[in-house]
Design goal:
The protein has 202 residues and is an alpha/beta fold. It is built from 8 helices and 7 strands, in the order αααβαβαββαβααββ. It has a 7-stranded mixed beta sheet with strand order 3-2-1-4-5-7-6, sandwiched between helices. Strand 4, helix 6 and strand 5 form a beta-alpha-beta unit. The longest helix has 10 residues. The chain binds S-adenosylmethionine. S-adenosylmethionine binds next to helix 1 and strand 2.
């Protein structure tokens, strides 16, 4: 499923208020996925499609006070919840950007890594969106595409089955990433998590 921005905004805008209470036990899974990015103190990282900012606190912990954490999302209600939860605004956790991740106000190669949880299947133009994420990351930098539940378990939760055209399936994702400037370096799709890790090509 890919989505146009208006539909994304409507869909997530109506879910923002109870987003964090729907899955209250996901915190450790987010922290573990962030750890696999291998961030160092002082690094700059973007949470693309940050929503209510569930990854922002572990991202800040990974880069420390000298690092930079940006959170970008196109749904205002999600960012409002992030601020209300103390993960943005003046809290010092992250600077929040109300924007489509396909058009980032960030200079070329400024970031060391991008974290994207539950994002990729909502991109209207996946190659263009992933290429924009590659543009803002330095060569050798990393991209983590994460979900705190695997594809099959998520489909079952929604009463569906996984389909071969799913962008997150490895055979589809690998060439899409390559076209966008990323090399897939690891891929895990198990019940308790989905994590595709890619490296920015030189
Ligand atoms: C499934 S939610 C995940 C939110 C958050 N990452 C989390 O794990 O809780 C997907 C989020 O991506 C945002 N999103 C989808 N497409 C986007 C785009 N093109 N640019 C910016 N944000 C986008 C939605 O507004 C929504 O907040």
């Amino acid at each position: 499923m890919s989505d146009d921005p208006t539909h994304v905004r409507e869909f997530f805008g109506s879910r923002a208020a109870d987003w964090d209470t729907r899955f209250p036990d996901d915190g450790p899974a987010y922290a573990a996925a962030v750890q696999e990015l291998g961030l160092r103190p002082g690094d700059a990282v973007l949470d693309a499609g940050c929503g209510t900012g569930r990854a922002l606190t572990p991202l800040r912990a990974a880069v420390g006070p000298s690092g930079t954490v940006l959170g970008a999302d196109l749904t205002p209600e999600m960012l409002e919840r992030a601020v209300a939860a103390g993960r943005g605004g003046t809290s010092g956790t992250a600077a929040l950007l109300l924007t489509d991740v396909g058009h980032l106000p960030v200079r070329d190669g400024a970031l060391d890594a991008v974290f994207g949880a539950g994002l990729v299947s909502h991109l209207a133009e996946p190659v263009a969106g992933l290429r924009e994420l590659a543009r803002v990351v330095r060569p050798g930098g990393r991209l983590a595409l994460f979900h705190p539940i695997g594809r099959a378990a998520l489909a079952a939760r929604h009463g569906r089955q996984i389909t071969p055209d799913d962008l997150r399936a490895e055979p589809r994702l690998r060439p899409v990433l390559a076209e966008a400037g990323w090399r897939l370096v690891s891929y895990v799709d198990e019940n308790a998590r989905y994590l595709a890790m890619a490296e920015r090509e030189a």
